[in-house]
Structures are given as structure tokens and as C-alpha cells.
Amino acid sequence: MLATFKCRVGITCYPSVGGSGILATSLGEELASRGHEVHFISYERPFRLKLPTERIHFHPVVINDYGLFKYPDYTLPLSVKMAEVSAAHSLDILHVHYAVPHATAAILARSMLPAASRPKVVTTLHGTDTTLLGKDRGYAPAIAHALDSSDAVTAVSGFLADETRRLLGVDRSIDVIPNFFIPSKPNRTRDQVRVELGVAPEQALLLHSSNLRPGKRPDLLLEAVARIRPRDSFKLLVLAGESFEPYYPIARRLGLETELIVRDRVFDIEEFMQAADISLITSESESFCLSILEAMWFACPSVSTRVGGIPEVVTDGETGLLVPFGDTDAFVRAIESLLKNPERRAVLGRAAQRLAQAKFSADAVVPMYEDLYRKLLNAPPRP
Ligand code: GMT
User: Fold this and answer.
1) 161-184: per-residue pLDDT in tens?
2) Summary count for the chain: helices (H), strands (E)
3) Is the distance from the beta carbon of residue 285 to the nearest atom of ligand 1 less than 6 Å?
4) How far is the CA of 285 from the centre of ligand 1 (A)?
5) Labelling 374: which of 161, 191, 246, 328 has CA 20 to 30 A away?
6) Ligand 1 centroid, distance to 20 Cα (angstroms)
7) Is the model's pLDDT at 298 over the cut of 80?
8) DSSP 3-state helix, strand, coil percentages of the chain (rounded to 5)?
9) 127 CB within 6 A, ligand 1
């Protein structure tokens, strides 16, 4: 019976600001709310994880700074903790988010346990674990081995599944399970937030939310925004997952001091998402782009580069606008066209919200993971 399926899942992810950890945290919380028992195993509590929560446990991995090591090792203590938690709590599944080094640690943990009590290993690929590290000869064979040895592999977009096969030469099934998002209800109104940010009623609020890693190309974002005319028609809000410090000189050179608002380490992103009019993404590669989805939930359309898995999230001309990577003129024109046309913005935004609710909600996506777990637990053990 579908409704009575319950299992014990260990989840490992990066706890810091980043889409893979955010997704893993939401998945764990959703699984717990559906009656599964969830054990997070990581070096820190994932930053969005609310504790205490019924059926959710957190097991920190302690890393020894052994004097002999020039580089501290995380993989081994992580695998030992995974094996320990699996044995102590009879885990059915070890679900790792981001392959490096989590998948390697999980297969090692599995092999440390007696055959009868080995959890199934599910590896979810999020992006640079394939698109960046998969190109690095110092990592690729280990990633390919960990994927081949996982009981199931999922990727957050069809693009990422294909790239993984191509770059790593992996010849195994990879299930595509997209990301999802559950917006919290903002505490303040849209108007209150806009007043706090200093956005005039006639101005549009442009939003960029990311970890600002080089691949997000914050430099291109600022260059494009500096070319938007009229200058006083907008403000740009950057929700910075990491320090914006390296980009202030660019913003100053481009004379964007008046338009730019930066907020870092924001935990209540919903407050700002609801206040935004257009979400901007200039990434050179993106397997999915969770921040576009977060904005979609607040009926905020996007202008973004047509790269990687983004076209699987944004329907060009219907829920947002896609522009070829590197074509700054086209990017600026796309933003200006939406600035001039609030009605079109609203139509795109409403369509984006409907798409998010239909395809990228917890109710649409979490059962895909539950089905996968159920299938694995019903399958015969690996030879
Ligand atoms: O790969 C990264 O840059 C980090 C990773 C993360 O942990 O945030 O981001 C990836 O995973 C997200 C969640 O699945 C996706 O929405 C992002 O598109 C993806 N980033 C890239 O592919 C660059």
C-alpha cells in the first residue's frame, strides 16, 4: 500500500548556502512530514534545517586535524559516521546530494556493514559535481566509480543526466527528478519590503539571488544592468549567498551605487522574492537554477541565459525570457522590454507560478523519490 510505505533515510549534503543543500534539506523535511525517519549526516547542521523537528535527527561528522595531514580529510570520517548511523538506526537508504565526496563515502560506508544490513545508496547529482569536477582527471574516475556503484542515481535535469553520461562515460540509468521548492509565508508585505529597500512605487525591483560563484557571472550581471535605460526605472537587489566584496569595485566602476542593494546571508528569502519584479540569471552553466524556481513561486518572471537545464525550468516567452549566453545586448533588451511592459511581466509571472505549482512542488516531486526508495527496497540485494 502506497500510503503505508515508511523508511529510514540518511541524508548527506553540503550544509552551506547552495542549491543542493537547500534541496536536500527540504526533501528531508518533507519526508519526515510524510512519516519517514530522516537522519542528516554532515559536518554542520544544514543552514535551513529547522531543529528540533519530529522524526529528524542530525549527526555531526567530527573532523580530526591530525598533524600529519597537510589537507584535512573529510571522506573517511564521513563514511565512518554514515556506517555508524546506518547500523545504529537500521537505515534503509543513504541518500547523498552532490556526488563529491558524498557518494564515495556512502559506498565505502555500505561496504563496511554486514551484507544483511547494508542501506541502498542513492546519489543525486546537482551540477558541478559533473559539469566541473567531471572534467577534472583527478576526480572523474572516482566519481564514475561512485555512480556505477550507487544503487540509484538521479539528476535534477535531463541536461545534467546527459552531461553525466557524456563527460564521465557512465553507462547506467539516471533518473531525472527535478528540484522543488516550498515557499514560506513572508512576514511582511511586498510594500513594506520595497519601502525598506528604498524602491519607489514606479520602479521595478530586479533580483539576483545566488552563491555568487564565478560560474554565476556576477560581472556580466552588473555589466548588463548598468546598460539598462532609463537608469531610474529600477533597483537591483542582490541576495548574496557568499561575499559580494569582490564585485563592489565593478559596481563602482559602472556607476551602479545608487541602483544596487546587497543583502547577504538572507534566511527569509521569501520576503524579498515577493517584492521582486524580474529575476536575473547570467550563469554560464546551470543544471537547474533553484533560484529561478524560488522566484517563480512568487509570480516573478526571469530573464536568464539559455544554458544547461534552465530551459527545462523556464518556458521561453511564456514564463520568462531566455537569452544566449554572452549576448549582453540581447540580455539588456529582454530586461528593458519587461520594464516597459508591466502587463506582460504579470502574465509571464502568473504562468511561471502556475508551472511551479504544477511541476516543481513538493507534492509533484517528493513522491518520485519515495517511489524510487520503494523500488530499491523491493529489489534483490546487489550481487
Ligand atoms: O554546482 C554548484 O554550483 C553548486 C550546486 C549547489 O549546491 O548549489 O548548484 C547546483 O545545484 C542546484 C540544486 O540542484 C541547481 O539548482 C544549480 O543549477 C546547480 N549549479 C550548477 O549547475 C552550476
Assistant:
1) 999 999 999 999 999 999 999 999
2) 15, 13
3) yes
4) 9
5) 161
6) 6
7) yes
8) 45, 15, 40
9) yes
